Amino acid sequence: MRFRRGRWRHPQVDPTVTEFERAVAPLKRQEPSDAAGRRLVAQENDDRIQAEYGHEPLTTASVDHLVPAQGAPDVRVRVYWPGQDPAPPGSGLPVLVYCYGGGFTLGGVDWSAWDARLRRRARDAGVIIVAPDYAHAPEHRFPVQPEQCWAAFEWACEHADELGGSADRIAVGGASSGGNLAAVITLMNRERAGRPIRLQILENPALDLTIGHADMKGIGPAMPHVILEKAGRALVSQYLGPDRQLARDPHASPLLATSHEGLPPAVIFTAELDPLRGDGEAYARALSAAGVPVVALRFVSQTHESLGIPLPFAAGDFAHRAWVNEVARLRD
């Protein structure tokens, strides 16, 4: 049998994603350039989009705690339970410490989209989610965020039983910058505590802040590579500050750690049209080479943000069910 070599075509965005972006464009106010103003307007935009297109908010149980962090401000931590009441102590449910995404500068558990997503995931997977509301850059810079997330992880492990969870069924996860922080937690745990983490589940994670693994191959001509790279470096600068050498610190760029041996099994979601695809897939290769069980799943025709679109479409629905399936296995 002979195979005819076809012409390579530039990847195209899922038409459903394009349709959604056009629909929400009138709901968005332009974000100002200053960090605080940009954050405020971005949250207002998020509220309007969720009100128009989001799922009905779930009435699942949640409660906030204030957790002290070593060398960093106290961090607010929100606990989500799968049901309408907190699980009784000793219920033995899995506990997932989850870090939201937002380029280290945006997002939080009070944002409509993140709160709704975490409630739905806790319910559908049947797990307790502990979500640190870590500080934003540039007002707070590295290593504040890793230390806050580490404090939240330690707190979750120490209080697992009284939350209705089990310290033997602990996992970490996160998206984008939150995926970075989740991966950093696994390194910190290897260095500091050696607690048994059953899973790290990362979505479009930013794992090399030198931008050395960013993959621009799938990005179309409408968004020049130089603009994307400049935007990425601007976010990194807000997070790390002027010392560019910090980008090589494994607690900033976990992909650049000297060794990945002994880290938890991983599931990594990437999107074809996301420059961070390069980070996620390189991390999968590094973990595999270190003998860590890993599965990497690339979503064709999807962008960095599209799998979180708050309405049912094929890729987003599958991503949610795949995430839930992997996390629910912690109950076994």
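[next item in queue]
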Amino acid sequence: MSFFDDDPELQRIGSLITDKAETAFGARGVPSEQFGYVLLRPGRDGERPKGAALRPEWRSYPCSLVKVFFVVAAQAALESGQLSAHEELDRAMRDMILWSSNSATNYIIDLFTQTTGDTLLDEQDIAAWCERREAVNRFFAQLGWPELKDINLNQKLMDDLRYGREKIGLDRSPGGHNALTPIAMARLMHEIFHGSVLSEAGRNKVRGLLARDLASSFVSRGAYQVQGYLAGGMPEGTQIWSKAGRTRWLGDERADFRRHDALRAILPDGQEFILTVFAQGEAIAEDDGFVPALGAIVAGEMKSNARVGIAP
């Protein structure tokens, strides 16, 4: 059982997403199995969300989506006193989400796990190092959410191959690379906006970091993750909170050529939805039009429903 209930109308919209994806993947010779999504309409007054999904448990290298998990873990550590607030941590949390900075992310991982990636260690020390790197996995495991059962959160973010401790840590990692699923990402996004993860103040902090402004002068910058992503398919006036990620060639086929996104949107008419999209394939990773088109389908269908009086 998932945390959401199946919904016929969302399944209809989901079928349009699936058709669009299968057409795009087929035209490029990319296997359609390398695509998955979860679409949610949050419930009201504590009700369970409604949803639809395709391959929700598809386990994939998550690119920068994993940074939402790291910012939640860091905020929880601040609330528990495990981490002490300081200016550099605040700056890193902001830049990790706003600009998808890998350097900022790796600084937070060092703080949370009390590790650094550097020269080689002897056997006893590298074993202890690998154990400390499991700290983020342990944090999310204790939440007890079944949607997180296949994820892995023990690796830093790299722009190419790994060396030294990072290479040894990856080779020894039971879960391999970082990994997420569309349903794991959807569950965390829902909990940030409608759940109980973190305190209310902590959730508000994370929400603020995830916010994107379609009227911002930063929209034209790729690092702002609007153009080429789900947010780029939203109509003017939509409120957006999102985190996306893309890899091109990294020299490691386990992580190459992904384009993923997680979006919470409130349309100008007040309708809200959460959409997570995972896609793999070189032609898809290089296509700046594919993911925004999926977002536009959902936004357009939600607006159509509002015009004909279908209850959100």
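[queue empty]
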